[in-house]
Amino acid sequence: MDLDTSLESSTVAGIPLLACIPQRAHPCPLVFAVPGFGGTRTSLLSLAYRLARRGLTCVSFDPLYHGARRDERLDHAADPTFGGIYPPESGMDTYRVFLQVIRQCSLDIKTLLPILSADARLDGTLVGVTGFSMGAYATYLALAENPSLRAGVAMMGLPTFSRRWQDLLDECALSNPAWDAAMRQVAAQTAETSAWIRSFDPADRLAKSSLPALLAMNGDMDFDQPKYYVLDWLRSVRPAYAACPENLRWNVYPVAHTLTVQMEQDAVDWFASHLA
Question: Would you tell me which CATH number, out of the four given (3.40.50.150, 3.40.50.1820, 3.40.30.10, 2.40.50.140), belongs to the domain 5-75+100-159+203-274?
């Protein structure tokens, strides 16, 4: 299938959207696409066109603090004005904002889905989600929180939010005595943040969800989002997929933290198989 497509920009419920819609006579499946940290609704246009040419509509959006929703805290998370409490060089405040954006991405998808499903060109019963890096985190979370999502492709991210947060805290404390001392001064705030992250961590919830068709992608040389988090998580979730093993796949690519043409094509093939 190789269809003509249209590109439509709009704002729905205050969320800036970019929809790549195939021109076909009957409703088509819908795939939400979430960009990486610092990206915008145009960042995944290549993937969007590939999906549309296979008969699937792709809707991308500007995440919280990104694009048309830009906020200075994205670049200055360690500034106390924006709630920064950790040593700036540690990156911990940036990671906290990173997770705030991811949390809102899942809520945005939940808001958008019933509205977009009213579009006669779209099939609201065949919906998936994908994203790169930060968008992969959002993919895992959206799949855990929204049973209407039937398929997902998480590209270069991980589902174990709490474990990653704690590992980063420990890494900072154990590798830098000055950071350790500074972070001890904000132990109460850190405990609150840790509890907040646990409240929406998708790792355990995915195994208890409607078991969407999930393709996880990681890079063999990716030190930004290490693959071993996904490896450990897959060991725990795999039994839940025992009755439908074809709905769970892990692809590891010989790359660092990047998105390749092959990954895009594999994502399109996954959605074409499980939605179209």
Answer: 3.40.50.1820
